[in-house]
């Protein structure tokens, strides 16, 4: 996920594309030398990571050092040596394990995230993961309840921070590694900058270690030591008028609203014969198709049938999957999917929610990927999504421009904890989408 320093995950398109936004501004009588010094100082300060420098992650100083071996940075410690008690929190707060099956707890998590989770740079939009989505994202096969971690105020019991992990098998080159996927790190707005996040990260790490798992994968909009890959979001307008009205996108130069609406218009029905929604009985075929497809990427999940059933079987307002069943042979050769992640629109008179689809896993073997994704856009439009987002991972670059996606203004960085990949990967070498 991204944080509010970057709008990469959140849906602001072409906003504030000023890469120098963090540099100190020039004041009247500053000499060039002093300015250069200030810039240097601010850069070196901003590059120090008091917490992350202590963790087994690739460090900036090691970038490009091909002599370092790929694989775990530190060996596992004996389980008996893993700290048995939780890390200390500031006195007013306590740890809780969040039971996502409890309607009440799920509501509390939902409210914390709805009000405090990721926003774009300009604070116009905030992710609004639904409760069903959170349950789906947090309770896959083999999940650990102990990895759904909350922080409450002792006196009032108010939930003020959250972090989660779910287990996943992730392949890096030829090695399948048991990992935790870490997500939903959130600290209440009133408790920011108090170094609570490092304690939460250490606590989830401890609980992951207790299950004898020593690696993790995560994404963020901020640069931390050290990205495995840096990706970009692209956005395809489905409801351009609304997107422009709420400030998500702007009318292009020399464009009128009606020309823009025409530009993004899609047919009412899909074009590929045999294109239909995935069903339970498709799980074995989809698993075979997807496993084969993902094997070409350097880092990708190692899905089995249970994973595919959980992550890809359509779930209303959470995840949608379509496939192409050959009308002649009934073979399944193509597949596409997207998940539903709305954003709250902050402070707009007319609209409160932006309905966004996020491209998930897509496989084309017979139907051209461009045609398959055009059909995905058509079903998303038919189901009232306002925008279809996709990262430039896997083979997505091959359809983005042609299908009228526009580049977003932020970046999404992928990270591995305690696992070194000895060079930075291109987005097209990544076969992993985290929620
Ligand atoms: C992300 C968030 C929890 C960080 O909390 P904070 O109060 O701003 O920061 P803290 O003082 O507690 O901790 C700062 C440390 O956390 C690290 N950190 C900040 N955001 C991080 C992230 N997304 N992932 C991992 N580490 C992160 C910082 O780099 C810093 O460590 P460093 O000194 O080694 O660089 C908080 O800003 C937040 O809830 N933001 C909105 C939701 C969000 O963006 N979540 C992250 C999605 S990836």
TrEMBL record:
Residues 72-231 form the Glycylpeptide N-tetradecanoyltransferase N-terminal domain. Residues 245-424 form the Glycylpeptide N-tetradecanoyltransferase C-terminal domain. It is an enzyme of class 2 (transferase). It comes from the Eukaryota. SUPFAM superfamilies: Acyl-CoA N-acyltransferases (Nat). GO terms for cellular component: cytoplasm. Its EC number is 2.3.1.97. Residues 1-34 are annotated as: Disordered. It catalyses: N-terminal glycyl-[protein] + tetradecanoyl-CoA = N-tetradecanoylglycyl-[protein] + CoA + H(+). GO terms for molecular function: glycylpeptide N-tetradecanoyltransferase activity. Residues 1-32 have a biased composition (Polar residues). Keywords: Acyltransferase, Transferase. It holds the Pfam family NMT. Belongs to the NMT family. Adds a myristoyl group to the N-terminal glycine residue of certain cellular proteins. This is Glycylpeptide N-tetradecanoyltransferase. It comes from Nyssa sinensis.
């Amino acid at each position: 996920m991204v944080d509010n320093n970057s709008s990469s995950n959140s849906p602001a398109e072409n906003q504030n594309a000023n890469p120098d936004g963090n540099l100190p501004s020039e004041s009247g009588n500053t000499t060039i030398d002093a300015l250069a010094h200030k810039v240097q100082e601010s850069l070196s300060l901003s590059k120090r990571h008091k917490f992350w420098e202590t963790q087994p992650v690739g460090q900036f100083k090691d970038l490009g050092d091909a002599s370092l071996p790929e694989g775990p940075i530190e060996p596992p410690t004996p389980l008996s040596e893993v700290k048995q008690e939780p890390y200390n929190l500031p006195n007013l707060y306590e740890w809780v394990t969040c039971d996502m099956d409890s309607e009440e707890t799920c509501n509390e998590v939902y409210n914390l995230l709805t009000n405090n989770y990721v926003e774009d740079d300009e604070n116009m939009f905030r992710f609004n993961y639904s409760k069903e989505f959170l349950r789906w994202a947090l309770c896959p096969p083999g999940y650990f309840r102990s990895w759904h971690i909350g922080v409450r105020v002792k006196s009032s019991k108010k939930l003020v921070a959250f972090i989660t992990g779910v287990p996943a098998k992730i392949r890096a080159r030829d090695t399948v590694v048991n990992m935790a996927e870490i997500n939903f790190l959130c600290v209440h707005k009133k408790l920011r900058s108090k170094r609570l996040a490092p304690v939460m990260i250490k606590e989830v790490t401890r609980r992951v270690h207790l299950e004898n798992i020593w690696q993790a994968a995560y994404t963020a909009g901020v640069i931390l030591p050290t990205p495995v890959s840096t990706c970009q979001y692209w956005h395809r307008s489905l409801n351009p008028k609304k997107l422009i009205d709420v400030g998500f996108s702007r009318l292009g130069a020399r464009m009128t609203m009606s020309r823009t609406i025409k530009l993004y218009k899609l047919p009412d029905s899909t074009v590929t014969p045999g294109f239909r929604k995935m069903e339970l009985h498709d799980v074995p075929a989809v698993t075979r198709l997807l496993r084969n497809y993902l094997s070409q990427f350097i880092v990708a999940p190692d899905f089995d049938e249970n994973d595919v059933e959980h992550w890809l079987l359509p779930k209303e307002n959470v995840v949608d999957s379509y496939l192409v069943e050959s009308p002649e042979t009934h073979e399944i050769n193509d597949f596409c999917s997207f998940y539903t992640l709305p954003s709250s629109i902050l402070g707009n008179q007319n609209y409160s929610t932006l309905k966004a689809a996020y491209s998930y896993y897509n496989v084309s073997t017979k139907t051209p990927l461009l045609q398959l994704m055009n059909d995905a856009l058509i079903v998303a439009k038919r189901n009232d999504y306002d925008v279809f987002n996709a990262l430039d991972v896997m083979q997505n670059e091959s359809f983005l421009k042609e299908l009228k996606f526009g580049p977003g203004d932020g970046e999404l960085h992928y990270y591995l904890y305690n696992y070194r990949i000895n060079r930075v990967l291109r987005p097209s070498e990544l076969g992993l989408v985290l929620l």
